[in-house]
DNA sequence: GCGACAG
DNA sequence: ATCTTGTCGC
Protein backbone atom coordinates (compact mmCIF):
# COMPACT_ATOMS: atom_id res chain seq x y z
CA UNK A 1 0.00 0.00 0.00
CA UNK A 2 1.08 3.56 -0.67
CA UNK A 3 0.68 6.85 1.25
CA UNK A 4 -1.94 9.22 -0.12
CA UNK A 5 0.04 12.33 0.78
CA UNK A 6 3.74 13.12 0.62
CA UNK A 7 5.15 13.33 4.12
CA UNK A 8 7.85 15.84 5.17
CA UNK A 9 10.95 13.96 6.31
CA UNK A 10 12.96 16.54 8.18
CA UNK A 11 10.98 18.76 10.51
CA UNK A 12 11.65 20.61 13.70
CA UNK A 13 9.31 20.70 16.64
CA UNK A 14 7.26 23.72 15.62
CA UNK A 15 6.89 22.47 12.06
CA UNK A 16 5.63 19.15 13.37
CA UNK A 17 3.05 20.90 15.54
CA UNK A 18 1.96 23.00 12.60
CA UNK A 19 1.49 19.87 10.46
CA UNK A 20 -0.58 18.28 13.23
CA UNK A 21 -2.89 21.29 13.44
CA UNK A 22 -3.27 21.35 9.66
CA UNK A 23 -3.89 17.62 9.22
CA UNK A 24 -6.15 17.28 12.25
CA UNK A 25 -8.87 18.93 10.17
CA UNK A 26 -8.68 16.04 7.68
CA UNK A 27 -9.63 13.43 10.26
CA UNK A 28 -12.99 11.75 9.57
CA UNK A 29 -14.79 10.73 12.77
CA UNK A 30 -17.60 8.76 11.16
CA UNK A 31 -17.68 5.21 9.83
CA UNK A 32 -16.22 5.02 6.38
CA UNK A 33 -15.12 1.39 6.16
CA UNK A 34 -15.93 -1.38 3.72
CA UNK A 35 -16.42 -4.95 4.81
CA UNK A 36 -13.43 -5.63 6.98
CA UNK A 37 -11.74 -8.86 5.97
CA UNK A 38 -8.19 -7.86 6.81
CA UNK A 39 -7.16 -5.99 9.93
CA UNK A 40 -3.58 -4.93 10.60
CA UNK A 41 -1.57 -4.20 13.70
CA UNK A 42 1.50 -1.94 13.62
CA UNK A 43 4.21 -1.53 16.24
CA UNK A 44 7.78 -0.34 16.70
CA UNK A 45 10.58 -1.75 18.87
CA UNK A 46 13.66 0.13 20.06
CA UNK A 47 17.25 -1.00 20.44
CA UNK A 48 18.41 0.24 23.86
CA UNK A 49 22.05 0.33 22.74
CA UNK A 50 21.86 2.02 19.36
CA UNK A 51 19.30 4.57 18.27
CA UNK A 52 17.78 2.15 15.82
CA UNK A 53 14.14 1.22 15.57
CA UNK A 54 12.33 -1.63 13.90
CA UNK A 55 8.72 -1.43 12.70
CA UNK A 56 6.45 -4.34 11.90
CA UNK A 57 2.97 -4.80 10.52
CA UNK A 58 0.90 -7.97 10.73
CA UNK A 59 -2.27 -8.53 8.75
CA UNK A 60 -4.88 -10.81 10.30
CA UNK A 61 -7.95 -12.39 8.77
CA UNK A 62 -10.83 -11.01 10.83
CA UNK A 63 -12.66 -14.34 11.00
CA UNK A 64 -9.83 -16.64 12.05
CA UNK A 65 -7.61 -13.96 13.62
CA UNK A 66 -4.73 -15.80 11.96
CA UNK A 67 -1.78 -14.03 10.37
CA UNK A 68 -1.98 -13.78 6.59
CA UNK A 69 1.04 -11.51 6.05
CA UNK A 70 3.79 -9.67 7.92
CA UNK A 71 6.32 -7.02 6.92
CA UNK A 72 9.16 -5.28 8.76
CA UNK A 73 11.40 -2.25 8.22
CA UNK A 74 14.42 -0.81 10.05
CA UNK A 75 15.09 2.82 10.78
CA UNK A 76 17.91 4.80 12.36
CA UNK A 77 15.67 7.20 14.23
CA UNK A 78 14.78 10.56 12.72
CA UNK A 79 12.91 12.19 15.56
CA UNK A 80 13.24 11.99 19.36
CA UNK A 81 10.46 10.79 21.61
CA UNK A 82 8.44 13.80 22.67
CA UNK A 83 5.01 13.25 24.22
CA UNK A 84 2.55 14.81 21.79
CA UNK A 85 4.91 14.39 18.83
CA UNK A 86 5.29 10.66 19.21
CA UNK A 87 4.00 9.85 15.73
CA UNK A 88 6.87 11.64 14.01
CA UNK A 89 9.24 9.11 15.56
CA UNK A 90 7.36 5.97 14.57
CA UNK A 91 5.73 6.90 11.27
CA UNK A 92 8.86 6.70 9.06
CA UNK A 93 9.58 3.00 9.70
CA UNK A 94 5.88 2.13 9.84
CA UNK A 95 5.42 3.73 6.42
CA UNK A 96 8.27 1.66 5.01
CA UNK A 97 6.79 -1.54 6.40
CA UNK A 98 3.31 -0.76 5.04
CA UNK A 99 4.79 -0.12 1.59
CA UNK A 100 6.05 -3.71 1.53
CA UNK A 101 2.60 -5.13 2.12
CA UNK A 102 0.89 -7.06 -0.66
CA UNK A 103 -2.37 -7.34 1.24
CA UNK A 104 -4.25 -4.07 1.71
CA UNK A 105 -5.69 -3.92 5.24
CA UNK A 106 -9.26 -2.63 5.61
CA UNK A 107 -8.51 -1.38 9.11
CA UNK A 108 -5.36 -0.69 11.13
CA UNK A 109 -5.02 -0.83 14.93
CA UNK A 110 -2.24 1.37 16.32
CA UNK A 111 -0.29 1.29 19.59
CA UNK A 112 -1.08 4.74 20.93
CA UNK A 113 -3.78 7.37 20.64
CA UNK A 114 -5.88 8.65 17.77
CA UNK A 115 -7.68 11.92 18.50
CA UNK A 116 -7.14 11.51 22.26
CA UNK A 117 -4.31 13.97 21.84
CA UNK A 118 -3.67 17.65 22.74
CA UNK A 119 -4.18 18.68 19.11
CA UNK A 120 -6.48 15.73 18.30
CA UNK A 121 -3.84 14.16 16.06
CA UNK A 122 -2.09 11.20 17.64
CA UNK A 123 -0.30 8.36 15.82
CA UNK A 124 -3.46 6.54 14.70
CA UNK A 125 -4.94 9.68 13.15
CA UNK A 126 -1.61 10.59 11.58
CA UNK A 127 -1.27 7.17 9.98
CA UNK A 128 -4.92 7.12 8.93
CA UNK A 129 -4.79 10.45 7.15
CA UNK A 130 -1.40 9.72 5.60
CA UNK A 131 -2.64 6.48 4.01
CA UNK A 132 -6.32 7.39 3.85
CA UNK A 133 -7.18 4.18 5.68
CA UNK A 134 -9.50 3.50 8.65
CA UNK A 135 -7.48 3.40 11.91
CA UNK A 136 -8.10 2.92 15.62
CA UNK A 137 -5.98 4.33 18.44
CA UNK A 138 -5.44 1.67 21.10
CA UNK A 139 -3.23 2.74 23.99
CA UNK A 140 -2.25 0.92 27.16
CA UNK A 141 -2.11 4.23 29.02
CA UNK A 142 -3.51 7.68 28.36
CA UNK A 143 -1.86 10.82 27.07
CA UNK A 144 -4.55 13.29 28.14
CA UNK A 145 -8.13 13.29 29.42
CA UNK A 146 -10.13 12.28 32.45
CA UNK A 147 -12.46 9.31 32.88
CA UNK A 148 -14.40 7.55 35.57
CA UNK A 149 -13.73 3.92 36.36
CA UNK A 150 -15.62 1.74 33.87
CA UNK A 151 -17.64 -1.30 35.06
CA UNK A 152 -15.69 -4.46 35.84
CA UNK A 153 -17.10 -6.52 32.99
CA UNK A 154 -15.65 -7.14 29.53
CA UNK A 155 -17.18 -4.56 27.20
CA UNK A 156 -17.81 -1.95 29.91
CA UNK A 157 -16.46 1.48 29.17
CA UNK A 158 -16.37 5.10 30.34
CA UNK A 159 -15.90 8.21 28.18
CA UNK A 160 -12.46 9.82 28.14
CA UNK A 161 -13.04 13.58 28.32
CA UNK A 162 -10.80 16.56 27.66
CA UNK A 163 -11.93 20.17 27.71
CA UNK A 164 -15.57 19.06 27.76
CA UNK A 165 -15.12 16.89 24.68
CA UNK A 166 -15.32 13.08 24.50
CA UNK A 167 -12.03 12.11 22.88
CA UNK A 168 -12.19 8.35 23.45
CA UNK A 169 -13.32 5.50 25.68
CA UNK A 170 -11.62 3.69 28.52
CA UNK A 171 -12.55 0.13 27.58
CA UNK A 172 -12.48 -3.07 29.64
CA UNK A 173 -11.60 -5.93 27.28
CA UNK A 174 -11.68 -8.69 29.91
CA UNK A 175 -13.49 -9.06 33.24
CA UNK A 176 -11.57 -7.42 36.12
CA UNK A 177 -8.61 -6.59 33.87
CA UNK A 178 -7.09 -3.12 33.59
CA UNK A 179 -8.88 -1.19 30.81
CA UNK A 180 -7.27 0.25 27.66
CA UNK A 181 -7.67 3.61 25.91
CA UNK A 182 -9.56 3.59 22.62
CA UNK A 183 -9.96 6.56 20.31
CA UNK A 184 -10.91 7.37 16.76
CA UNK A 185 -7.96 7.26 14.40
CA UNK A 186 -9.55 8.00 11.05
CA UNK A 187 -12.68 7.03 9.08
CA UNK A 188 -14.34 5.18 11.98
CA UNK A 189 -16.72 6.11 14.80
CA UNK A 190 -15.79 5.62 18.44
CA UNK A 191 -18.48 2.98 19.01
CA UNK A 192 -17.48 0.98 15.94
CA UNK A 193 -13.85 1.24 17.03
CA UNK A 194 -14.70 -0.21 20.44
CA UNK A 195 -16.76 -2.98 18.85
CA UNK A 196 -13.77 -3.97 16.78
CA UNK A 197 -11.37 -3.91 19.73
CA UNK A 198 -13.68 -6.20 21.68
CA UNK A 199 -13.95 -8.58 18.75
CA UNK A 200 -10.17 -8.57 18.37
CA UNK A 201 -9.67 -9.29 22.08
CA UNK A 202 -11.38 -12.66 22.66
CA UNK A 203 -8.97 -13.84 25.35
CA UNK A 204 -6.46 -11.22 26.45
CA UNK A 205 -6.34 -7.60 27.58
CA UNK A 206 -4.85 -6.39 24.30
CA UNK A 207 -6.27 -7.06 20.82
CA UNK A 208 -4.69 -9.88 18.81
CA UNK A 209 -3.37 -7.38 16.28
CA UNK A 210 -1.27 -5.73 18.98
CA UNK A 211 -0.18 -8.99 20.56
CA UNK A 212 0.86 -10.55 17.28
CA UNK A 213 2.72 -7.52 15.92
CA UNK A 214 4.41 -7.07 19.28
CA UNK A 215 5.84 -10.54 19.06
CA UNK A 216 6.93 -10.12 15.44
CA UNK A 217 8.63 -6.76 15.92
CA UNK A 218 10.39 -7.99 19.02
CA UNK A 219 11.88 -10.99 17.24
CA UNK A 220 12.79 -8.85 14.24
CA UNK A 221 14.74 -6.43 16.39
CA UNK A 222 16.48 -9.26 18.22
CA UNK A 223 17.48 -10.91 14.96
CA UNK A 224 18.71 -7.58 13.70
CA UNK A 225 21.81 -7.77 15.89
C1' DG B 1 5.00 27.65 39.17
C1' DC B 2 3.46 22.54 39.35
C1' DG B 3 2.28 18.15 37.64
C1' DA B 4 1.52 15.10 33.53
C1' DC B 5 3.61 13.15 29.91
C1' DA B 6 1.09 7.65 23.91
C1' DG B 7 5.97 4.48 22.87
C1' DA C 1 10.12 1.75 24.74
C1' DT C 2 13.77 -1.06 27.69
C1' DC C 3 16.12 -3.90 31.79
C1' DT C 4 13.47 -9.70 32.12
C1' DT C 5 11.66 -16.14 32.64
C1' DG C 6 9.79 -18.87 35.04
C1' DT C 7 6.59 -19.43 38.29
C1' DC C 8 2.85 -19.19 41.79
C1' DG C 9 -2.18 -18.88 42.03
C1' DC C 10 -7.27 -18.53 40.68
From TrEMBL:
Catalytic activity, as annotated: Endonucleolytic cleavage at apurinic or apyrimidinic sites to products with a 5'-phosphate
Keywords: Cytoplasm, DNA damage, DNA repair, Endonuclease, Hydrolase, Magnesium, Metal-binding, Nuclease
Source organism, top-level taxon: Bacteria
Location of the protein in the cell: Cytoplasm
Cofactor: Mg(2+)
EC number from the UniProt entry: 3.1.21.7
GO molecular function, one term: deoxyribonuclease V activity
Chain sites annotated for binding Mg(2+): 43, 111
Site entry: Interaction with target DNA: 81
Major localization class: cytoplasm
Free-text function comment from the UniProt entry: DNA repair enzyme involved in the repair of deaminated bases. Selectively cleaves double-stranded DNA at the second phosphodiester bond 3' to a deoxyinosine leaving behind the intact lesion on the nicked DNA.
NCBIfam families: PRK11617.1
Annotated family: Belongs to the endonuclease V family.
Protein's UniProt name: Endonuclease V
Amino acid sequence: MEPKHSHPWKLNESEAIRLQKEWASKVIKEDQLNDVQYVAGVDVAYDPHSEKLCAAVVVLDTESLQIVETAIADDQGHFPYIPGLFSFREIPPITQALKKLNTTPDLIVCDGQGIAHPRRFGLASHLGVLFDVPTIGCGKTKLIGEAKEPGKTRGDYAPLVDDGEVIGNVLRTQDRVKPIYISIGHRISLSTACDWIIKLSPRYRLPETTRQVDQVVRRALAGLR
